[in-house]
Structure formats: C-alpha cells, structure tokens
Design brief:
Number of helices: 18
Helix content: 55-70%
Strand order of the largest sheet: 3-2-1-4-5-6-7-8
C-alpha cells in the first residue's frame, strides 16, 4: 500500500516517518517554501516529496490529510477530485464532524473514508499511543489494511463505530481539559506571577497542573482552537464547566459552607464511585517534578479548577473513566489529580476550607474565575482568531519555561503512566 500525506507539519512528518520505518512506501507534499527543508529531512528516510496534493492523490492507495482544521475544506476541495480510484482517505483532525462533511462533499463516491485520530502530540512516537480508528464508509478489505497499518507502527488501536461518538468523548478528554489548564495559565499571567514561585502552587497536584499547563502552551494554538470551536459537543461541556466554576465561586465568596460541601460530596460520590477502576497517581513521583526552588514551603490550595471539573462531570452525567478509551496524557493526568484530591478525605477537606475561608488565595481564585469566563465566551462565540490570540498572549508570558516544562511533563507522563 502506497501512503500519501498532504501536509507535512509536526504530525504529518511524525507519521510519515513511522510508516516508512514500518516498510511502507510513503510520499507527501507541503507548502513550496518548505520543500528543500523537508527533502533534506525526509528523503534519506525513503520518503518522496511531490509537487502538490494532486500528485499525491493520483498515486496513493491511502491519502491522509494532515492540515489545520480551519484550512481542511480549502485543501480537500483543491485536491480531493484527483483521488485515485478506490483509494482510502483519512484525516488527522481532532474533530470529525466537519472533516466527514468535507470529505463527503468533495471526494469521489468511490473513495473509501476511514479516518483516525492520534491521541497524542508530536512529542510522542506513535508506538504505544492510543489511536482512534473510525470506519465511515469502506469495503472490509480496506478497513483491514488500515488495521494492519496501525498495528505495524504499534499504536494502541481503539475502534469507534461512529464519528459522533468520537466527538462527544473528545469534547471532554480534549476540549474541556485544555480549557481548564488554559484558564490556569491565563490566571497566572493576569496575576503577574509564575506559579512555581508561589507557595500555594507547591506540591504533587500543583506540579502536575503547572507542567501540564506549560505542555499545552508549548504547542500551536490552532490545534486547541479547532478542538474547542469545531466540535459541536464541546460548547455545551465548556459552558457547564464555566457554570460549575461560577456557582462554586459564588458559594465560596458567600462562605455558604454547608451547600458548598454537600454539592462537592454529591459530585464525588457520582464520579468516584467504588465501581470505577482508579488511576492511582504516584504521590512521590508527582512531588519529584517541581520547578520551584522552595518545594518544602507549601501552603494550602483551593484547587478550584479541579473542584469545578468534578462538579461539571456530575452535572453533565459524564463518567470520565468511560472516556479513558479516548484518553490523552493531559486528560489522564487531570482525572488522576481529581481522583487523588477527591479520594483523600483530609486533602479534600483542606481544599474546601481553603476555598471558603483563606483570603490569601481568593485573589488567585478570582483571576481563575475571570479566565474561565473569558475562554468560555470565546468558544461560545466560535471566535477562532480570538482563541488563537488569547492563547498566544499566554504562551508569550511563559515563553522562557515552555521548553523545560515540556521536557519535564513528558518525563512525568512517562513515569506516571508506567505506574
């Protein structure tokens, strides 16, 4: 099977190399300005650069569109009609509703649509990573070839029957997950401090929050913008997250302790029911990964971002453990630290008491509250450019620590995932 990849950015190149290493014939194309650099990088690996997507489409048995979600329609409209008769076509976007609609609109009727979603970023090799495979329309033999392909590159394949199911799950595992961490980053930027320099953000859970936030802001804005804005299920879930945060924050500032505690314990009993198989993050590993120079000087934290997420899962009727089939490393870490907090009675009570009565952290919680509102509004309005601008401003604030944060978070993920 000859594989053609249209768009050789970070993920396109990653999979082109993996396919070539597994013995497949691979070709691809990108913008003309990138041609020389890509040839120098990929030709020694046996990957052929072609002039454009038409050349790739005419000769490839599998055509993978690996382009930004908001540019996909323009690219498929241009190159889709040249699709080789009976070829398999796939996309690498993280939201499948618009992708499938675009494929159905511009591809020949004989094209077989079997799309996929790699549940990891370019910082991880495909081997061992979850990959969602969705058969939209194809012959059984074509689907088997796709299974064989991703088996050959040793991905952890999860088969999902319908793209609607995929988008509903990733609205939680990606879109809302990212908004939670992006809101933390925005709050720290607005407050004008780096969290590792503040005693309220020292300790295992906070190390995970900080490193995951830095990891997200080390990547490109368009990836997260597409996930949040193009997914029809994401807006509802982000809206609930914002509503949960707002209602909890109001209870905090009014110091309505009985209702605040009752609400959180209801959410805990639903989400962390005894039937759930726990993740059990290792506390000693979490404590090891700190950017702080004063790791021993720790103050209590309200963990409002985590309280809000668990409350939102409860009100949405979502069992996040079911969504682990489409997990990303940040989602698993988010669920893991929520589990760690809510299943530790003493730590949860400390968090509740801090949220209700510790005025020294109230300013930080106010910044987080404002940040959640901002992100929720941007997503609610479908403002793709506003999302990118907001993201890039926070990214610039953390610029000096993003590379270190990305490296440490990758090692943290590796250690925690290993148990």
């Amino acid at each position: 099977m000859r594989i053609g990849i249209i768009g050789l950015g970070d993920m396109g190149r990653l999979y082109a190399k993996a396919f070539a290493k597994a013995g497949y014939t691979v070709c691809g194309c990108d913008m003309p300005i990138n041609r020389e650099r890509l040839e120098n990088e990929l030709n020694p690996l046996g990957i052929t650069l072609m002039d454009d997507g038409k050349d790739v489409s005419r000769v490839s048995d599998l055509i993978i569109y690996s382009v930004e979600a908001d540019k996909l329609e323009q690219v498929v409209a241009q190159y889709g009609p040249a699709t080789k008769y009976g070829a398999i076509v796939a996309g690498q976007t993280s939201v499948k509703h618009p992708e499938i609609a675009i494929f159905e609109k511009y591809l020949p009727v004989d094209a077989q649509i079997i799309t996929f979603h790699a549940m990891h970023g370019p910082g991880f090799e495909p081997k061992g990573q979850k990959l969602i495979l969705i058969n939209h329309r194809s012959e059984p033999d074509a689907y088997k070839r796709m299974l064989d392909l991703f088996t050959a590159v040793e991905t952890d394949i999860v088969e999902i029957k319908h793209y609607h199911e995929h988008d509903k799950i990733v609205a939680d595992t990606q879109a809302v997950t990212h908004v939670g961490f992006e809101s933390m980053g925005t709050a720290w930027k607005s407050a004008g401090f780096f969290p590792w320099e503040n005693a309220s953000y020292v300790g295992g859970i906070d190390n995970v929050k900080i490193l995951t936030t830095l990891r997200i802001f080390s990547y490109k804005a368009h990836v997260y913008a597409g996930l949040a804005i193009l997914n029809p299920y994401a807006r509802q879930q982000v809206r609930q997250y914002a509503m949960s945060e707002s209602e909890l924050f109001k209870l905090m500032i009014k110091e309505e302790a009985a209702e605040f505690k009752a609400r959180l314990y209801r959410a805990r009993d639903f989400v962390f029911h005894e039937s759930r198989k726990p993740i059990m993050l290792n506390d000693s590993v979490m404590r090891e990964f700190s950017l702080s120079q004063n790791a021993d000087h720790q103050k209590p934290n309200s963990h409002l971002s985590i309280l809000s997420m668990v409350d939102a899962w409860y009100h949405l009727g979502v069992n996040p453990y079911d969504n682990l089939i489409c997990q990303t490393p940040p989602f698993r870490l988010r669920l893991g630290i929520a589990e760690y907090l809510f299943k530790n009675e003493e730590l949860l009570e400390e968090s509740i008491e801090t949220a209700l009565y510790d005025k020294t952290i109230r300013g930080d919680d106010l910044e987080f509250h404002s940040a959640v509102r901002e992100w929720s509004a941007i997503i609610g309005y479908g403002d793709m450019e506003g999302y990118k601008k907001h993201f890039n401003e926070v990214q610039a604030f953390f610029k000096g620590r993003l590379e270190e944060g990305n490296k440490q978070s990758a090692e943290l993920i590796r250690r925690l995932m290993a148990g």
